[in-house]
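Model it.
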Amino acid sequence: MSSAKDDAEALGPERRLPFKAPVRAWALSEWALLPLRLFLGATFLYAGLQKMANPNFFKRDSPISIQSQLIAATHTSPISGLLVHMEGIAKPIGLVIAFGEIAVGVGTLIGLWSRIAALGGLLLSLSLFLTVSFHASPYFTGADIVFFFAWMSLIVAGGGTRLSLDAVIAQRVAHKADQPSPQLVPIPFATVQAICGNYVEGCCTARGGLACDAAVCPVLLGGRGPLVTRSGLDLIDRRSLVVGAGVAATAAAGVLILGGAAADVGNLVNNAPKPGKSNELTLSTAPVTTTTTAPSGSSTTTPTAPVPSGKLLGSAAEVPDNHAAAFTIPSNGDPGIVIHTDSGDFVAYNAVCPHMGCTVGYSSANKIMICPCHGSEFEVSNGDVIVGPAPHGLTKLKVVEGTNGNLYLQ
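Modeled.
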């Protein structure tokens, strides 16, 4: 009687490992992954161009600037210790992110060095997940983690041979070298066995009588393993590498030109989000003073009233009716916003949006606070959420106006 071990040996390695990925698995998935590839490429290209075309993304005092987003992320990110050292180089980081997204988008859309482009997209998505959406709850409401795993699929499968510049380069190089087409065609392994001259009763004569196994089949692999035939740049030989590098260099120059053109257009039309005028006013800490005349005729400057307790923010006169001003919260360094309502009162909030850490602004036209990144809206009177995706309202702060005309944070 044959043992269970003998039966397993007779089945061959590919049947004893039913969960092992099939050889050349990418040839089975490239067409199905094409919509995902086009979506990711278009999305990252748009995101990069949007950043370059928005002057406020690089302005330090803007609520949607890369600087503001880094500052907000230092209070929620698991890598906050690293981020605090990056605030001084926020603009170069913003340029790297924007041009990186454009390069990833272009490379993915045209199928050029597809796995490298996908790796770049994965790293960008991972960095955004760790800095912006790490605390999104539930976790699936943050888009960055979804992008991370979507890019991983393209790293595994590559760009494929459909609508792919990599495939065009490989075809042209093979044609000039009088080599057969490198295009992959998935077929059932039973068909390979039926037409293979080396297949004899479950064994492979080309492998010295060992069991026939698709994972190491010399007909399928041509004597080269999967990591050799389809690794790294997804190119078939050195000539393809040279041609691909030349095309990639041209594409890189195009990315720089495209990003620069987007920045020029953005500066020309100034087509940046303007949620209100909170980013146009910043409270100074100079107290209001008056000049009185002493009996001797000399002039002296004295405060108009005793100073209330709390942190001096600045003069209330700097914030007209139905306007807002920005300040920094001393206790944690977060951006704050103070609003002068129509009723004459002053209300203040921590301006960090609880959704993904952008800095909210005030819309004097609509009399609401708006997050310029994802559109969350907040009530002025109490900071409650009017429109999501913010999960809850803003943290309210206590601000009082002293009789000396100054605002104080208590």
